[in-house]
Amino acid sequence: MDRLACNVVAPEEAEAFVLRAVERLKQLGMRITEPRRMVLKVLATTRKPLGAYQIRDRVLESGGRIDVASVYRILASLVESHLAHHIGAVDGYLACSSPHVEGEIQHLICEDCGCVEELSMPSSVSRAIDAALGGTGFESRVTRVEVQGVCDHCQSARAQGRKTRQN
Ligand SMILES: [Zn+2]
Ligand SMILES: [Zn+2]
Ligand SMILES: [Zn+2]
């Protein structure tokens, strides 16, 4: 995982995501259309969740053609294929960065820079959540947690800022 800077995705990492995603879609019997490939490429290059309109704009900027309705359709299929996640707290879409196929993950959302990190969730946590549901009659399918806070990069940046102000 890149700990050097916020929202920096190495080109080889972005490429690896697109390759992995294309492989998964093929396995699922889905066609690798050009718009689908372009949406994957946009998601691959950022750690900040993007809305459908932002994704459309980036595809257009890179010389592609796509409309927002197609972006939404493609995003829905990527979320269903576990290749992207919808991050509710910021209403945006993020490439999946871990090899899980089902559920137990947590997303750490930085309120300063907007970058999101994906971590797997210890099964003890999902068990605790399931136990807490006991008696409600609710049947859980996927446990996904969004944690809001400040990433380590932004914490160092804040500390630096304090130092400069003091000097
Ligand atoms: Zn960060
Ligand atoms: Zn994921
Ligand atoms: Zn941050």
Structure overview:
By secondary structure, the chain is of the alpha+beta class. It has one domain: Arc Repressor Mutant, subunit A, CATH 1.10.10.10. It is built from six helices and five strands. Strand 1 and strand 2 form a beta hairpin. Helix 1 packs across helix 2 and helix 2 packs across helix 3. It is globular, with a radius of gyration of 18 Å. 25% of the residues are buried.
Write a short abstract of this structure.
By secondary structure, this protein is an alpha+beta fold.
Supply database-style keywords.
Arc Repressor Mutant, subunit A; alpha+beta; two-stranded antiparallel ribbon; 6 helices; single chain; 167 residues; 15% strand; three-stranded mixed beta sheet; binds zinc ion
CATH homologous superfamily, by name?
Winged helix-like DNA-binding domain superfamily/Winged helix DNA-binding domain
Strand order, main sheet: write it out.
Answer: 4-3-5
Question: End-to-end distance, in Å?
Answer: 34 Å
List the bound ligands: zinc ion
The biggest beta sheet is recorded as: 3 strands, mixed
CATH architecture: Orthogonal Bundle
Helix content range of the residues, please? 40-55%
Number of helices: 6
Number of self-contained structural domains: 1
Q: Name the CATH class.
A: Mainly Alpha
Beta content comes to 5-15%
Average of per-residue pLDDT values: 90
The CATH topology assignment is Arc Repressor Mutant, subunit A
How many DSSP-defined strands?
Answer: 5
Q: What class, by secondary structure content? A: alpha+beta
Helix-strand sequence: HHHHEEEEHEH
* Radius of gyration, in angstroms, nearest whole number: 18 Å
